[in-house]
């Protein structure tokens, strides 16, 4: 069944329409949730929209209630996340490269494939609604093609399709990339990072974890709650799962409602990945705070970690300077800390320039460089992100990371500590950047970030490899793949 054949039939059917007296099949209703999900796929493709912003806006526009909103979310996010796998299955079923399929039709097919392979949608409903969607958003002539491809997909089970993907792949990496829906270069980068820790065998678990939307993690800011946040868990919706002592995990439902129910002042409990919580705590807790210290958060926007730094300093007169190059994101930092930390001064400069530090010779006792990075550690959170990133993004990012670190080191006080954090496990952004930094600056030494993290974490943290830096992983630690390295100025 091919689109070309469908196209060939289309005009003839149209010409005959006036004379055809046979009763027409009743039009299939397309659920508003499916239309909203399709619109999100288009927003992401045509306008480079972020799915997490496009989704709520399309849901509002279509006035979807809770159940339909959840359906639209599952359809759009699941389809975007598994796009690579569905594209390969569509190619096998259509016997045609996806690049040769009209993009609107391709999105209709992707949505249909998701319903057939990953949701419990009845096959006839998935096929019929997809055919109708094709007529509505693309063209009548492709309806037969959509019908044929989706019927072919529905005739084999997901396991059988995965076996076909593997059989027809040109290499084991291509097979993994298509089956687990990641670009091949990302598969290679993740394998390299795991291999560096002696854990290459975890690759498939990692890819699978990247395809699971994470549970929502909350932080109860330190200073507002004594001891482990575990005491606040109800063991039901809210559990003390995860490695951060200030972290709680939400089983489901509306985070805003769960936050309100805890009854803290606004801003004290907020959504934050527990890897991010640990990264901030690694800097604040590597040694006791001394009055008179000065702290700097060099790349602070939107301010999640700044809030943890500020909250850790309640009761001290230690100022935190929070810098963020984008004025808009600096404003988000101001809002993030407004209610919870009065010691934070937010400024907006390029972290490579002396203005970011206040004065050319300003020195800080603790500096957080939570650097701009490829974000390959948060793929489970942003379903479309993996398809947007390119290996060619890396040289510019790694150069910027090195320059920000150089500037930060120049403002590190004697004995001062610096944390380098990325939400990426890519070696070019992690160990390679760290090793080059150490070569350029003989006056700093690397500290044992693994030991610091173990000392602050709730429970035992599984951290692998022999390096002093720590790499967290979604499949192993239940966090984003945050990388944390710690340094101290020795001369
Ligand atoms: C990974 S994010 C920081 C996340 C933040 N620490 C948090 O926990 O919410 C990196 C930030 O660095 C900012 N950035 C990029 N280039 C910068 C530069 N040259 N100087 C300072 N900040 C920069 C980006 O705008 C972005 O907000």
UniProtKB/TrEMBL annotation:
<dbReference type="GO" id="GO:0006355">
    <property type="term" value="P:regulation of DNA-templated transcription"/>
</dbReference>
<keyword id="KW-0694">RNA-binding</keyword>
<feature type="binding site">
    <location>
        <position position="324"/>
    </location>
    <ligand>
        <name>S-adenosyl-L-methionine</name>
    </ligand>
</feature>
<dbReference type="InterPro" id="IPR001678">
    <property type="entry name" value="MeTrfase_RsmB-F_NOP2_dom"/>
</dbReference>
<dbReference type="GO" id="GO:0008173">
    <property type="term" value="F:RNA methyltransferase activity"/>
</dbReference>
<dbReference type="GO" id="GO:0003723">
    <property type="term" value="F:RNA binding"/>
</dbReference>
<dbReference type="Pfam" id="PF01189">
    <property type="entry name" value="Methyltr_RsmB-F"/>
</dbReference>
<keyword id="KW-0808">Transferase</keyword>
<feature type="domain" description="SAM-dependent MTase RsmB/NOP-type">
    <location>
        <begin position="206"/>
        <end position="490"/>
    </location>
</feature>
<dbReference type="Pfam" id="PF01029">
    <property type="entry name" value="NusB"/>
</dbReference>
<dbReference type="InterPro" id="IPR035926">
    <property type="entry name" value="NusB-like_sf"/>
</dbReference>
<dbReference type="InterPro" id="IPR018314">
    <property type="entry name" value="RsmB/NOL1/NOP2-like_CS"/>
</dbReference>
<dbReference type="InterPro" id="IPR029063">
    <property type="entry name" value="SAM-dependent_MTases_sf"/>
</dbReference>
<protein>
    <submittedName>
        <fullName>rRNA small subunit methyltransferase B</fullName>
    </submittedName>
</protein>
<feature type="compositionally biased region" description="Basic and acidic residues">
    <location>
        <begin position="1"/>
        <end position="27"/>
    </location>
</feature>
<feature type="binding site">
    <location>
        <position position="370"/>
    </location>
    <ligand>
        <name>S-adenosyl-L-methionine</name>
    </ligand>
</feature>
<feature type="active site" description="Nucleophile">
    <location>
        <position position="423"/>
    </location>
</feature>
<dbReference type="InterPro" id="IPR049560">
    <property type="entry name" value="MeTrfase_RsmB-F_NOP2_cat"/>
</dbReference>
<dbReference type="GO" id="GO:0001510">
    <property type="term" value="P:RNA methylation"/>
</dbReference>
<keyword id="KW-0489">Methyltransferase</keyword>
<feature type="region of interest" description="Disordered">
    <location>
        <begin position="1"/>
        <end position="29"/>
    </location>
</feature>
<feature type="binding site">
    <location>
        <begin position="299"/>
        <end position="305"/>
    </location>
    <ligand>
        <name>S-adenosyl-L-methionine</name>
    </ligand>
</feature>
<keyword id="KW-0949">S-adenosyl-L-methionine</keyword>
<dbReference type="InterPro" id="IPR006027">
    <property type="entry name" value="NusB_RsmB_TIM44"/>
</dbReference>
<dbReference type="InterPro" id="IPR023267">
    <property type="entry name" value="RCMT"/>
</dbReference>
<comment type="similarity">
    <text>Belongs to the class I-like SAM-binding methyltransferase superfamily. RsmB/NOP family.</text>
</comment>
<feature type="binding site">
    <location>
        <position position="350"/>
    </location>
    <ligand>
        <name>S-adenosyl-L-methionine</name>
    </ligand>
</feature>
